[in-house]
Amino acid sequence: MTFAERHTAMVPWGSLVLASGTVCAHTLEHCLRCRKQCSELFDFSGDALLHGKFWVLISCSFFHGTHSHLLREVFLLLLVGVPAEEELGTLVFVAAYLISGAFGAVFSWLTLRRTLRNSPDYAAMPRHHVDAVADLSNSRGASSCVYGAAVLAILVAGDRGLKDCFGASSAVTNSLLLAARVLPEVFSPRSSRIREYPFAAAFLAALLVFAAYRSPVSISVAQAVSLWLAVHCLLRLFPAIVSLHPEREYAAVDYAGHVYGALYAGLCGACHLLLNRRACPSAQAWVALVVLTLSTLPREALLYRSD
User: Among 257, 285, 293, which residue's Cα sits nearest to residue 269?
Assistant: First the structure.
């Protein structure tokens, strides 16, 4: 079987199972209204890890706080997981995905410990009290995993055409990519502007999707990731695009989990390239890595101000 035939015949079971498992976990938690119980049992925290609940290293990646959080990460998982899995194989990809999440969770916790120790707000507290505050901080979500998967996809399959990965025309893949990027913002709690002007937002989204469908451009995996994360950077820098009250938005400042998950996956991808004597990533892959790095950089937090 040739290289092209192997990719055509392969079904990305790993990506599909991870995505469906994530959706099922979120749906069950939401339908059964057991957020508190699931948080205590499956969310990652330093306290849980220190008490021997090692499964939280994996389980925390399957639970999400909001519907938009879930959609954003599941869509990105499918976007980058399919090409990465086709190149690496199902077992290697799934292992790298889950370990990236574990790395991100652990190092995010350790980073929080160090941050609180150096914070003047906690300077008067004993160190073990400060560490206890960090240890009791829960985290959930697959951000570290999908950022790791994105790095893998960029390194090992960045030059592949998106239409070749999904077996569809460029018009279909372009429109689905844009629709998948826009849809999570519709359900985002911060998108008050979209809820205030739903018809205008729907018309604009439909216009963008139609333009993408009619576009003759065929984009690669690296370019698709660059587009996805560039929108993420844009919305972080200019929250007024989707929010009527951007000054009330909390800005995420702790992206340590994303960074460490991506670093671990980057190491795996680099080893894969070296062991298989593959060429160095192309220019568009490096651009995608730069955009991914920019999307993890902290920005000044916007303080909540009540009326």
Answer: 285
Find the DSSP H helices in 13-142: 13-32, 35-42, 46-50, 56-59, 67-88, 90-117, 127-135
Q: Which residues of the chain fall short of a pLDDT of 50? A: 1-8, 250-253, 300-307
d(CA 207, CA 202): 8
Q: Which residues contact 89 (CB under 8 A, 6 or more apart)?
A: none
Between CA 203 and CA 199 the distance in angstroms is 6
> Which three-class secondary structure state does DSSP give residue 40?
helix
The pair of structure tokens assigned to 262 is 């991506």
The pLDDT score that the predictor gives to residue 136 is 84
Angle between helices 13-32 and 67-88 (to 10 degrees): 160
Cβ atoms of residues 99 and 219 within 8 Å: no
What Å distances lie between residue 48 and 111, 134, 141, 226, 294, CA to CA?
17, 12, 16, 36, 31
The position carrying tokens 């639970």 is 63
Its pTM stands at: 0.88
d(CA 208, CA 203): 9
pLDDT score, position 17: 95
Taking alpha carbons only, the member of 104, 97, 117 closest to residue 44 is: 104
